[in-house]
Design brief:
Helix 1 packs antiparallel against helix 2. The chain is α+β, with helices and mostly antiparallel strands. The chain has a single domain, classed as GAF domain (Beta-Lactamase), CATH 3.30.450.40. The protein has a six-stranded antiparallel beta sheet with strand order 3-2-1-6-5-4, with helices on both faces. It contains four helices and six strands; from the N terminus they run ααβββαβββα. The longest helix is centred in the first third of the chain and has 17 residues. It is globular, with a radius of gyration of 15 Å. A hairpin with a 2-residue loop joins strand 5 and strand 6. The chain binds methionine sulfoxide.
Length: 158
């Protein structure tokens, strides 16, 4: 397909935007088996659609997460197992929604403008091999709709 996104015109709910985006992400990554290329396009598609403050992946490398493809301001390069929101999602193997990062014990501050976030594990054959991290500069910006669709998107990578 042509490498461009078709965005919804005018006001649309976040769910409508995800629904519009899903088949386009599927089309974008279905013909490509390189994980880094697909993570890069997923980050760009989410950033372009929602203009989130920061969208990207951290990839499991031995006992740490290492920064992968992302869109947004520069970020921490490495996060240890169990540390911060990303490390917690990796450790527990479940999505973590944080309405107020200042209220999350051990939150790693990469950028003080980030106020809320969601982190979703990326599984390959039942093992967490990366996490998808989305940060917002608004408090309480993520909910069940984001969990549903971001988990579906993470599931498309394998
Ligand atoms: N906030 C994250 C660190 C990564 S940055 O936000 C990009 C955390 O506590 O895991």
């Amino acid at each position: 397909m042509a490498e461009s996104l078709i965005l919804l015109d005018g006001p649309a709910s976040r769910e409508d935007k995800y629904r519009n985006l899903m088949p386009q992400i599927e089309a974008l990554i279905s013909g490509e088996n390189d994980l880094i290329a697909n993570m890069a396009n997923v980050s760009a598609a989410l950033k372009q659609t929602f203009n989130f403050f920061w969208v990207g992946f951290y990839i499991v490398r031995e006992s740490e997460l290492v920064l992968g493809p992302f869109q947004g301001p520069v970020a921490c390069s490495r996060i240890k197992y169990g540390k911060g929101v990303c490390g917690k999602a990796w450790q527990d193997g479940i999505s973590v929604v944080v309405p107020d990062v200042d209220a999350f014990p051990g939150h790693i501050v990469c950028n003080s403008a980030s106020k809320s976030e969601i982190v979703v594990p990326v599984f390959n054959q039942g093992k967490t091999i990366a996490v998808l991290d989305v940060d917002s500069n608004s408090l309480n910006d993520f909910g069940t709709v984001d969990v549903l669709y971001l988990e579906k998107i993470a599931g498309l990578l394998f």
